[in-house]
Design brief:
alpha+beta, five-stranded mixed sheet, Beta Polymerase, domain 2, elongated
Length: 151
């Protein structure tokens, strides 16, 4: 039995997509995390955050509702630079972000934090939000480093 456009739109907005009030709540929660993590990086490291971008379906407002298996997944990219950035690898940056997240949220369970290959993740059990923080070097920094390395 084929579905009508009205039925598809209803399913999309009432079953699949995150409702506007939840989306607003999650954006506020992510904004608080960004502010706290940015402050911690600024106060406790020599790394400079040049830009923070909410990425993926969360940024495009196409994010889906959480399920019993899948949380609401949010990707945040921290573009970084700074004096020590040429010595830093992405792995050590992930470790640093992981450590700072644990300090920001001292009452959270250890299982709520994870280091992945290219990101540090924190999960919020109450809201069902899982946030991947991805550190990236600015392309201009990388180009300058490569130019200096070739000399």
């Amino acid at each position: 039995m084929p579905l009508t456009n009205t039925q598809l739109r209803h399913y999309d907005s009432n079953v699949l997509r995150l409702p506007a009030d939840k989306r607003k709540e999650y954006h506020e929660q992510v904004d608080r995390l960004i502010a706290e993590l940015s402050r911690s990086v600024r106060d406790k490291t020599e790394i400079k955050i040049t830009r923070v971008v909410k990425a993926g379906s969360f940024a495009k407002f196409t994010i889906l509702r959480k399920t019993s298996v899948d949380p609401v997944d949010v990707d945040i990219v921290f573009y970084i630079s700074g004096r020590s950035i040429d010595r830093e690898t992405l792995e050590t940056l992930n470790d640093l972000i992981y450590d700072l997240l644990i300090k920001i949220y001292p009452n959270k369970a250890v299982e709520d934090f994870e280091i992945q290959r290219k990101a540090a993740t924190v999960s919020f059990v109450g809201s069902g939000l899982s946030v991947d923080i991805v550190p990236e070097r600015l392309a201009t920094d990388m180009g300058a480093q490569e130019a200096n390395h070739e000399r």
